[in-house]
Q: What sequence folds into this?
C-alpha cells in the first residue's frame, strides 16, 4: 500500500547547486530526499514541477512522491512538522497534501509562474539575494513592454535555451508576460505551459539588450521563430528569478 | 576647510557584530570608515542616528561626518559611486548629501522608526534573514494591540534595556506603536524620539508573552513606570528588526 503526496515547497536557492540531485553537490532534491528518508525510511523518487537551476529561488515549488502506508494512517501535519525540523533553514515544506494515487507534479502541471526581479536604482543589501542589480544605461520601459507583448503566445523558444539541451520540443506557450514597476524594482511576471532550461533568464537578458538600445525589437521578434541560441542575448543571473506558483 | 556630509545607508545586519566599531569584529562602522579612508585619505569620525546591535538591519540609517575640502569641490555622485564600489555587498550608501557644517545625524534626529517583522505561519526560507519565525501558541491580536497602545507616550523604559547600561536617562517618548498584519507577517512599527539599547526587542519579547497568555496586560502597563529589567520579558531575536527611517 502506497500513498501519493504533494509537497509545496519554498527555498532560497543561493546556496544550492539547483534542484536536481548531483553527487557531491548541495541540491534541493538531495536535502529533501535525505529528510524524507528519515521520516519514511525510504528515499523516494521525486517528481518536480520546475527543475530550477543553481541560484534560482522558489516560493511555490510543487513536488510529488509516493510513500509507504495507507492515506488514513498518514498524519500530514506531523509529516510536515518533521520535514520542517529536519530540513536546513533555506528549504521549507509549507504544505503536505494526500493526492489521488496517479498525481504527478510535473506531468499534471498546466502552467508555471515565475518572477524575475531587478533593481533599477541603488544597490539594496537587504534585497540582494533575490533581486538582480541592474547597472548601466537606463532601460526604455516601452521597449520592455513591447518585447513582453511579443513573447505571449506559442513560439519556438530554442533561441532562449542552451544548445547542449535535453529538450526535444522547443514550442512553448507563453500565457502571460508582463513587466511591472514597484518603487525601485522592475519585475517580469511570466506564465507558460512549461519553460525550457534557462528560458526566463535568456528572455530577460535579451529584453534588457533591447531596452538599452543594443538590439532592435524587430530582431527580438525574429528570435521567437526558432533562431539559434547564438542569436539571442546573454543569460541574466539566477538570483533575480523565483518560481512563484504552479497551476494544476 | 571641511564639509559636512550626510550618508543614507542600508545594510543587512546578519553578518555584522552591530554598528559600533570594535577591534577584531566586523562592524558596519568599521567597513564604512575603511571605505571612507580610501576615498578621502582620512578615517573620519562618524555620528550615527541609530546604533544598531549585532544582527539588526537598516534600510534608512543616517550617518554624518566631515571631510576635507570645500563643498564646491566635492562631487557627491562620484563619492557615492566610489563608496558603493568599495563597500561589501551587505552595506550600501544610497545617498550622499552636503549639509550645513553643524549637522549631526545623532543629535539632530527628531525620531527614529523601526519595524519588527514576525512570521506567524510556516517558516519562509526567502524571508528568514529579516523576519523572526514565531513558533508556539497562537498570538492574541487584541492583546498585542492593547500593549502597543499602552506603549505610546512618554514612559520610563528602563525595564526594556539591559541593566548594565550606558544610558543615564530612561524616559523616552513613543510617538507611534502599531501592529499590522500583511498576509502571514505580523509587523510592529515603532517611532520614538530615541530608543534605549535593545528597547524594541524587549518590548516585542514582552508583548509576545502577553499575547500568548503568559503575562497580564496590566503587568505590561506596570513595566512602563520604571520597573527593573528583570520584570520584563525576553529580548526578541535581532533578525526581525530593521531601522526604517530617521526624521529630522
A:
Amino acid at each position: 500500500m502506497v500513498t501519493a503526496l504533494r509537497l509545496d515547497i519554498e527555498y532560497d536557492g543561493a546556496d544550492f547547486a539547483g534542484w536536481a540531485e548531483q553527487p557531491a553537490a548541495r541540491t534541493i532534491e538531495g536535502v529533501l530526499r535525505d529528510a524524507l528518508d528519515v521520516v519514511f525510511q525510504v528515499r523516494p523518487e521525486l517528481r518536480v514541477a520546475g527543475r530550477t537551476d543553481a541560484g534560482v529561488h522558489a516560493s511555490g515549488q510543487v513536488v510529488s512522491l509516493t510513500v509507504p502506508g495507507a492515506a488514513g494512517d498518514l498524519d500530514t501535519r506531523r509529516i510536515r512538522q518533521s520535514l520542517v525540523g529536519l530540513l536546513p533553514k533555506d528549504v521549507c515544506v509549507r504544505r503536505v497534501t494526500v493526492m489521488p494515487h496517479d498525481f504527478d507534479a510535473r506531468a499534471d502541471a498546466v502552467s508555471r509562474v515565475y518572477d524575475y526581479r531587478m533593481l533599477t536604482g541603488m544597490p539594496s543589501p537587504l534585497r540582494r539575494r533575490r533581486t538582480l542589480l541592474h547597472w548601466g544605461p537606463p532601460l526604455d520601459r516601452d521597449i520592455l513592454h513591447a518585447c513582453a507583448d511579443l513573447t505571449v503566445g506559442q513560439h519556438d523558444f530554442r533561441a532562449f535555451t542552451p544548445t547542449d539541451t535535453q529538450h526535444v520540443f522547443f514550442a512553448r506557450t507563453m500565457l502571460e508576460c508582463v513587466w511591472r514597476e514597484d518603487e525601485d524594482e522592475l519585475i517580469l511576471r511570466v506564465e507558460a505551459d512549461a519553460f525550457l532550461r534557462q528560458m526566463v533568464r535568456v528572455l530577460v537578458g535579451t529584453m534588457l539588450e533591447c531596452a538599452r538600445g543594443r538590439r532592435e525589437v524587430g530582431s527580438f521578434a525574429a528570435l521567437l521563430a526558432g533562431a539559434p541560441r547564438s542569436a539571442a542575448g546573454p543569460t541574466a543571473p539566477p538570483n533575480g528569478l523565483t518560481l512563484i506558483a504552479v497551476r494544476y
Notes: The first strand of chain B starts at residue 2 and ends at 11.
